[in-house]
Amino acid sequence: MVSDLSVRFLISEMKSDQSECLCVTLLLLLQSSVSKSESFQVHGPAAPVVVSPGEDAVLPCYLSPSISAVDLEIRWFRGDYNSPVRLYQNLNYNTKIQNPAYRDRAELFLQELPRGNVSLKLTDVRLSDHGQYKCLVESVDHYEDTLISLAVRDVSVSLHSPGGGQTQLLCRSEGWFPAPAVIWTDRDGHDVTSLSSSTVGKDSQGLLSVNSYIPVQQESNIFSCLVRSTQSKADGESQLHIPSKYCIE
Fold this sequence. Notes:
Elements: H1 4-38, E1 41-43, E2 49-51, E3 57-59, E4 62-64, E5 73-77, E6 86-89, E7 92-93, E8 106-108, E9 120-122, E10 131-138, E11 143-152, E12 154-163, E13 166-176, E14 181-185, E15 197-202, E16 208-215, E17 222-228, E18 235-241
Parallel strand pairs: 2-11
Antiparallel strand pairs: 1-4, 3-9, 5-6, 5-10, 6-7, 8-9, 10-11, 12-13, 13-16, 14-17, 15-16, 17-18
């Protein structure tokens, strides 16, 4: 028969073991929770962000799950990692190594960082801003990134000689979706679009480019080409002065 002392010892030992097991379990759960909180993914849009010169652009980028990014490092850059478009680290912007082309034009939505929104806003977009941007988010022992494409619409007009003594003007514009409308006017503001012909192509990103041709058939030597979105107010316009020797009677 087991003595009272022995029984108390066994119970005490069992309780001690259970307590130890409980402690270990809680510790493992805590470690698992910390590890999970530091793990995240970075997402952006699959389609390019399309704007016209002079407009503002927002390049969407966010964390999944939507954990706070306040204490993380957020680096937006193009080709050069060490010359970022915008760098946020240690709870503040770091402007010492910022690409000078984006100074005073690139900002994060700081009030959105607690919700995992690390998007970039570019103001007064230029043609040189066209291209890919990397959104890189880094914690102490984890980092993720994604690429976002910015397409800046451009319009140009040039002389085109298809042969046979003909002279045409070529109006070309890229970075559209859906296909835009092209409007030609002469020096007096008359719509001469009916005299033109257009072709539409698609690039590797699914964006459309338009080539519009119009013959030079009159004394008027100033032509304007207006490329207009069919969905928004964004327009692109270019004008070309044609020397008289190119005009066809």
